[in-house]
Design a protein that fits this description.
By secondary structure, the chain is of the alpha/beta class. It is about 45% helix and about 10% strand. The protein folds into two domains: about 150 residues, Orthogonal Bundle (DNAb Helicase, Chain A); about 270 residues, 3-Layer(aba) Sandwich (Rossmann fold). Helix 4 packs antiparallel against helix 5 and helix 14 runs parallel beside helix 15.
């Protein structure tokens, strides 16, 4: 290995700084890990320091030797620690030493990643997979050198920005988050906020995909934002066709069959013009992994300035390994939450529910009904459950309940929307929602809403 990939002098400098000024250990250990050391003797001595500190033992040459008499080479810990302490000019330069050690550790990891990528390329894997692995490997290194970042902040340092934000929201000069396009839902979730993972769950055919796509369309077509939709269930052509139906108010069946009426053509032209001008991007590749999704999303954000990300749906994301499915889905969920924080945008994640809710008297789903992993509910900032009871008259007429079962920044609740099936969209509910008594008794309220259509 090249000399430039490590610095024995800097590693000795770190160890010497601790020996000469033990009160620096907490700060040093927050910056440097055992794995950052290249020299095995230095790494072993640093580990002994960590063990002593954890045990509440003061760190000096004698206590280190008492904790561990010999290092991996067989050399006396007492002799090596004494030698290190004598050859460090001053503990005052520890930050410079730490930075050198961290930089060299990062360089070694980059070289190792390059070896892995080279081996992968030689295995004749698909080019897209090699590129995704390369991007993931380099992205994972982006935050390793964090010496320039503040580890903690005094509340008074944060307070001015928080007060300014509150004042801006009070004066309506700053939105609380992106609108969903549905008034009652916006009132509940108070906007889709940057860094949040919004889980939209539902049974098959409930309309969760309709809701997710509609929100993405609203952000891109009405709010002039940029959105990226990953669909592992539909083709990109199907997604765009649904967009035309939704935006133009055109029967989706007519678009599929080509049996358009004369008055459909102006609507189609108008919807096409809207989509032409929208920054809505779609990906319909099968077998996507989180690493690949992350790579594409980062690329899209750099080029287009991403505002929202949609994933349809989480259970179709391929796992990196073939171990326990629940654990793998949990890892995928946490990775998507981290992606939302990294990109600083709302990430809408669609999820299938199990059929446990169908056995309840009211058939209403709960966040715990999300299939495969409870980690999804735990990671989510907002959980919206799409509930349409097709055994009821109102459900057959498209009346759908959006249950906000979890929201970190507001109270849970629900609202009613009208699903217009032939236009693959939801609109705000114009009638009155059922009372609690009616829900419990299963009484019909389909006659109490306006504009209902059993074919919508």
């Amino acid at each position: 290995m090249s000399r430039e990939l490590f610095s024995d002098e800097a590693e000795f400098g770190i160890l010497g700084a601790v020996l000469l000024k033990p009160e620096l250990f907490d700060e040093i250990s927050s910056k440097v890990d055992v794995s950052d050391f290249h020299d095995l003797e230095s790494a072993a001595l640093y580990q002994v320091m960590i063990d002593c500190h954890a045990a509440g033992v003061p760190i000096d040459v004698v206590t280190l030797s008492d904790c561990r008499q010999r290092l991996p080479s067989g050399k006396s810990t007492l002799a090596h620690a004494g030698e290190v302490a004598m050859n460090v000019p001053s503990p005052a330069n520890w930050k410079a030493y730490a930075r050198i050690v961290r930089e060299r550790a990062v360089l070694r990891q980059i070289v190792n990643a390059a070896y892995v990528i080279n081996d992968t390329a030689n295995e004749e894997r698909p080019l897209s997979e090699v590129i995704a692995m390369a991007q993931q490997a380099t992205a994972d290194l982006r935050d390793l050198d964090d010496d320039g970042q503040q580890d903690y902040y005094k509340a008074s340092e944060i307070l001015p920005a928080v007060i300014d934000t509150i004042d801006s929201k009070f004066n309506k000069t700053m939105p609380t988050g992106l609108s969903t396009g549905l008034e009652k839902l916006d009132e509940l979730v108070r906007g889709l906020r940057p860094g949040n993972m919004i889980v939209v769950g539902g049974l098959t055919g409930s309309g969760k995909t309709i809701l997710g796509l509609q929100i993405a369309q609203h952000v891109t077509c009405k709010l002039a934002g940029a959105g990226l939709a990953f669909s592992m269930e539909m083709t990109k052509e199907e997604l765009v066709t649904r967009g035309l139906a939704s935006l133009g108010g055109i029967n989706l069946s007519a678009l599929d069959s080509g049996d358009l009426q004369d008055d459909d053509w102006p609507k189609l032209t108008s919807a096409a013009n809207v989509l032409m001008g929208a920054k809505l991007y779609v990906n319909d590749q099968a077998g996507m992994t989180v690493a690949r999704i992350r790579s594409i999303a980062r690329q899209c954000q750099r080029r287009e300035g991403l505002s929202v990300l949609l994933i349809d749906y989480i259970q179709l994301i391929s796992a990196e390994s073939s171990s326990n499915r629940s654990l793998e889905v949990g890892k995928i969920s946490t990775a998507l939450k981290n992606l939302a924080k990294e990109l600083k945008i709302p990430v809408i994640v669609l999820a299938q529910l199990n059929r446990g809710s169908t056995n309840r008297p009211d058939k209403r789903p709960r966040p715990s009904d999300i299939r495969d992993s409870g980690q999804i509910e735990q990671d989510a900032d907002v959980v919206i459950l799409v509930h349409r009871d097709m055994d009821s008259e109102e459900g057959q007429n498209g009346v759908t309940e959006l249950i906000v079962g979890k929201v970190r920044h507001a109270r849970v609740g629900s609202c009613m929307v009208q699903q217009q099936g032939k236009y693959v969209r939801f609109v705000d509910f114009e009638g009155r929602p059922p009372s609690n008594e009616e829900v419990e008794m299963g009484r019909s309220f389909a006659s109490k809403f306006k504009g209902s259509n059993k074919h919508e």
